[in-house]
Design the sequence.
């Protein structure tokens, strides 16, 4: 079961994703949350993936879509706390060079300044 | 889920080599249960967690592909899943009832112009997570994806 919540740290919206970022489950809720954050005026979005248990090609596609929509609106989307499984998949799909990612959430938040 | 009626196996396959045999409707919410059923047969093989994750994710991609691109999310169309030992290999076959699948028609998601496309990475992931992937027409239509791992013979696969 996927769960997504969001919180603020300064002008950064932190989206915490928990569970399976996979087709028909986490991909949809992540899309909704990012859309709501943008509609609420968010420019800087940090996806905290610390509690993401698995990711599939649709989940990867959702990360790419989120990155594209935020960037096209003049914002920034970054990733934090990638579990090894997620890191491996972003490496396989060669997206690891597309995303800016940080091990530490505080460091990630500071990078938006 | 009920025993598979799709012709997924070559004739003469020894029944004792068949580890799992499922037919399921094309409903994405079943993917997690498929993973659990798969884990239940992979555990006794002595595979470590990393290997089970790779096998489970590759199978997940194949089943999702069969449901979405093969059966066009039509829940009444079945997806067949068989897990078997073929000599020293672990083989997973996934069959759909769709119009057929041509891997050559899939755009390379690693090309710069495709890098930010939202879809098209399932086959890439299957190839990266297995020793071999093949697609062929099913005996009664549709398409059969075959995922293969060489047990004990490939450290890359089982000890990533």
Sequence:
């Amino acid at each position: 079961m996927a769960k997504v919540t969001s919180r603020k740290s300064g002008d950064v919206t932190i989206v915490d994703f928990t569970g399976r970022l996979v087709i028909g489950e986490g991909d949809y809720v992540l899309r909704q949350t990012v859309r709501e954050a943008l509609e609420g005026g968010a420019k800087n979005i940090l996806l905290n993936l610390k509690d993401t248990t698995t990711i599939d090609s649709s989940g990867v596609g959702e990360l790419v879509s989120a990155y594209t929509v935020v960037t096209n609106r003049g914002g920034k989307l970054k990733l934090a706390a990638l579990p090894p499984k997620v890191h491996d998949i972003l490496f396989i799909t060669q997206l690891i060079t597309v995303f800016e990612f940080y091990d530490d959430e505080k460091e990630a938040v500071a990078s938006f300044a | 889920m009920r025993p598979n009626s799709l012709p997924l196996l070559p004739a003469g396959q020894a029944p004792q080599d068949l580890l799992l045999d499922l037919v399921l409707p094309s409903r994405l919410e079943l993917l997690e249960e498929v993973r659990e059923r798969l884990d239940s047969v992979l555990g006794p093989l002595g595979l470590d967690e990393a290997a089970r994750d790779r096998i489970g994710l590759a199978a997940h991609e194949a089943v999702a592909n069969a449901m979405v691109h093969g059966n066009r999310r039509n829940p009444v169309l079945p997806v067949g899943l068989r897990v078997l030992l073929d000599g020293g290999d672990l083989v997973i076959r996934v069959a759909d009832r769709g119009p057929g699948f041509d891997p050559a028609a899939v755009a390379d998601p690693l090309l710069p112009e495709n890098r930010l496309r939202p879809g098209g990475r399932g086959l890439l992931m299957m190839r990266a997570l297995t020793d071999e992937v093949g697609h062929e027409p099913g005996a009664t239509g549709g398409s059969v994806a075959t995922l293969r791992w060489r047990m004990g013979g490939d450290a890359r696969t089982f000890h990533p």
Q: What stands out?
A: Residues 57-72 of chain A form the longest helix (16 residues). Residues 36 and 92 of chain A are 30 Å apart (CA to CA). The longest strand of chain A covers residues 44-55. Residues 3-111 of chain A form a domain with the Transcription Regulator spoIIAA fold (CATH 3.30.750.24).
